[in-house]
Specification:
mainly alpha, 89 residues
Length: 89
């Protein structure tokens, strides 16, 4: 199929109506989103209580310490494996 000046494009009434409805839905969603953004700008920022902050901080610190312990254990295991390999030759 070749597209040129003589090519005819036909649209049914159903296609035109569905295109208009789709465009109206997109425009409606855009205005709704804009209204939600403006409302969110007016709301006060969420406050994080000191207790919540301390609990999260402690949780992160515990995770870091656990990771350090795991790494130390892995290093010991690697040294054991290296010693075993070197002694078995």
């Amino acid at each position: 199929m070749e597209v040129n000046k003589g090519t005819k494009l036909t649209l049914s009434l159903e296609t035109i109506i569905s295109g208009v409805v789709t465009l109206a839905m997109i425009i409606g969603m855009w205005f709704t989103l804009q209204a939600d953004i403006e409302e969110a700008k007016e709301l006060p920022p969420p406050s994080v209580s000191r207790t919540e902050y301390d609990l999260k901080d402690q949780m992160i610190r515990d995770a870091v310490l656990d990771t350090q312990k795991d790494v130390a254990e892995m290093k010991d295991d690697i040294k054991s494996i290296e010693n075993y390999i070197l002694n078995s030759k």
